[in-house]
Amino acid sequence: xxxxxxxxxxxxxxxxxxxxxxxxxxxxxxxxxxxxxxxxxxxxxxxxxxxxxxxxxxxxxxxxxxxxxxxxxxxxxxxxxxxxxxxxxxxxxxxxxxxxxxxxxxxxxxxxxxxxxxxxxxxxxxxxxxxxxxxxxxxxxxxxxxxxxxxxxxxxxxxxxxxxxxxxxxxxxxxxxxxxxxxxxxxxxxxxxxxxxxxxxxxxxxxxxxxxxxxxxxxxxxxxxxxxxxxxxxxxxxxxxxxxxxxxxxxxxxxxxxxxxxxxxxxxxxxxxxxxxxxxxxxxxxxxxxxxxxxxxxxxxxxxxxxxxxxxxxxxxxxxxxxxxxxxxxxxxxxxxxxxxxxxxxxxxxxxxxxxxxxxxxxxxxxxxxxxxxxxxxxxxxxxxxxxxxxxxxxxxxxxxxxxxxxxxxxxxxxxxxxxxxxxxxxxxxxxxxxx
Amino acid sequence: xxxxxxxxxxxxxxxxxxxxxxxxxxxxxxxxxxxxxxxxxxxxxxxxxxxxxxxxxxxxxxxxxxxxxxxxxxxxxxxxxxxxxxxxxxxxxxxxxxxxxxxxxxxxxxxxxxxxxxxxxxxxxxxxxxxxxxxxxxxxxxxxxxxxxxxxxxxxxxxxxxxxxxxxxxxxxxxxxxxxxxxxxxxxxxxxxxxxxxxxxxxxxxxxxxxxxxxxxxxxxxxxxxxxxxxxxxxxxxxxxxxxxxxxxxxxxxxxxxxxxxx
Lengths: 436, 263
Known about the structure:
Largest sheet of chain B: 4 strands, parallel
Number of helices of chain B: 11
Shape of chain B: globular
Oligomer: heterodimer
Largest interface: A-B, 68 and 72 residues
Number of strands of chain A: 0
CATH architecture of the largest domain in chain B: 3-Layer(aba) Sandwich
Structural class of chain B: alpha/beta
Order of helices and strands of chain A: HHHHHHHHHHHHHHHHHHHHH
Number of helices of chain A: 21
């Protein structure tokens, strides 16, 4: 009989972690639907970027208020989770506060004391975050794409964190043996009087309930990640690792096009040559759906936590155009999820659903509003590159559909005919020298 | 007093068996746009004054391909790039300077993958180097104490991390450099990048160049300095829209220096 709580605990733990693992596999499969790209270069720089940007939060603090609060929540969450280790050991082995056995009283007290202080700081930060979203109504949280689920999602995450922090503090406050130690209860000693009217057994009840709800809450939160925008707490690390290393202004050259161009420039190429029998179909230019994007771009879309810094810096968005880089990322993720579900429903193969990223999610108008200024790329705290997706989709529009705005067709015609975007003769290129 | 510009072409120098120190890539705007031609001339005047051995490609130059690539026409871009690279490689070009950040970015970053490897600098970097090497000297002259704000071109700043060279030059003019609320990494685009220069903007509530001009005017400048022919056009239009053309001038860094030196 005495093992029942431990067995229940083990079952909850296995179920919680197992379900999460299943979703991680799903995530992996979806990301791998993207085209392969070689990102194996310059590992030292990649580790450095990850350490600086994800671990060190260097780009978060560009905006001091949100950045500072985020650092508190981030540090708090990482450090307080050390406590989870103790909870898991206690839960599996039926011990109580195993840390006290292995650590000296002062060290244990110091650890729990720091957790309690951090818990309060996290609580305060999260409440400020909620106020920023719901009362001050900061503009970037109110864009068109931030209604419905994305809005609720943002708040649910904050509620989760409030509940988890409160449970942690209540758990400590109602633990009479811990309170009697008088060490480490820096915050909970002020909460303990709230429960002073309770009998010993009801106090124990409250403590146990808080303990169980805390660990169940953490497992629930872990599993909520996949269904929310909050995956960044995990994916920020790989995403900054695989982020772009070349100058922001450098857009990739298409190898397939290079092959064509080189063939055209080669005087010895046979103009009548038929492709080899076993030649693969010519590659599609650009992207009209998620499977045309690279897996790094798809990883980008899952990493996006919809903070909207990209959109708030976007010159097109600031001047009322439809383009929002955040929406580009959200659309990419939502379409990828749809494709993933389609694959699951059809036993592992994708069955054409008559939809695609272009048109059904992202409109031409959004794509043509971009000035390619890189403000969104610069603003992203976790190295997401919405611009690369916009450029790939423009490439599809122009090279597969000839669907450029007519002004741009004129410009491209000029370049083709006379080597300048305007209709001037190439032979007149040096006329400025003699002009007054 | 208009001095006669000395603008040798690569073909002329090659025929004479000479190799210039640097190729001046003029670009389409610098060759054809009336406003941008003034920037080209100002830069050449400084090069002539400093006795820099340079040459242009002249009629052998063609669009770098930037607007084609940013519009999505990768094929046209690569055709332009490969053609230009053939010409430059035939002349054994080692170093390129250009007053257009779009050409600068494309030749510097996107040509190497197609066989064009050159040291590419923006004209503000080149001028800064001339100054550091003592090949030109600058005194504030008429710009002494004037309020000048610098508009970062996206393809120079964020795209390639060049923020200081143009600012150093403005400071050297003894001018008062004032920064806009969005500058350097947070600089706001003028609205012309990504081939927007060649099309009407999408439906919105404001044009981007107006937004940027408003930011510039907030600093109460006498001069808005630019380092890109497209930014120059957009900011000039913005200043006209705000009916400030009598009070605020939009000038390229090269023009500032050439004017200060009375060239």
